[in-house]
Amino acid sequence: MARILLVEDDPALSRGIIALLKAAGHAADTAKDGETALFLAEAEPCSLVILDIGLPDMSGFDVLKKLRARACKTPVLILSARDHVTDRVKGLDLGADDYLLKPFDASELGARVRALLRRDHGDPCPVLVIGNLTIDRSRATAEICGRPLRLRRREWAVLDRLTAKVGDVVSKEKLMAEVFSYDDAVAPNAVEVYVARLRRKLEPDGPSIKTMRGLGYMLTAS
Ligand code: CA
To answer: What's residue 123's pLDDT?
Structure first.
């Protein structure tokens, strides 16, 4: 669905959140400190940053300040055990989009991530109908003429990106960047492989995915 950068130095919490994000179909990168976070945010553009405040080399507030100073507009969700109102105000005033207190419930984190991504995609409605295809982003499900599609995680991610831009060309590089994380070992033709699988699953009643030679792919309702 999206590429997310998680900045969290607690290994157990980081593993738990990554598992949650991957189960929801996202590609996730992790940084254990502020320097790595700033490097990755620049090297691999993402759709959302989940940011811890207590980091070993600098505070999450400093990371946020530097991101915004570089004109990075990516939504930022702060995760923090600091429950004082002045911390929440500081985080939001520095440019965070949401603030979730630790400990939190996995379902609440999932819902906030979905809400921020919807807003970022300029699409507040989680259910999208394109011809015979209906997709529900909040449940990560798709159906054609009422028949559920069985999609693997990355097939879903590719479909989600293409349906967000119906009738527009989405470049292969953009799909590659949003579907795979930094440390995934990816074959150069991976995007073609997933698009081909997805095409077979959408046929014959669903929308078609056109290959625009040298440009990328376009999903059309016909
Ligand atoms: Ca921490």
So the answer is: 67
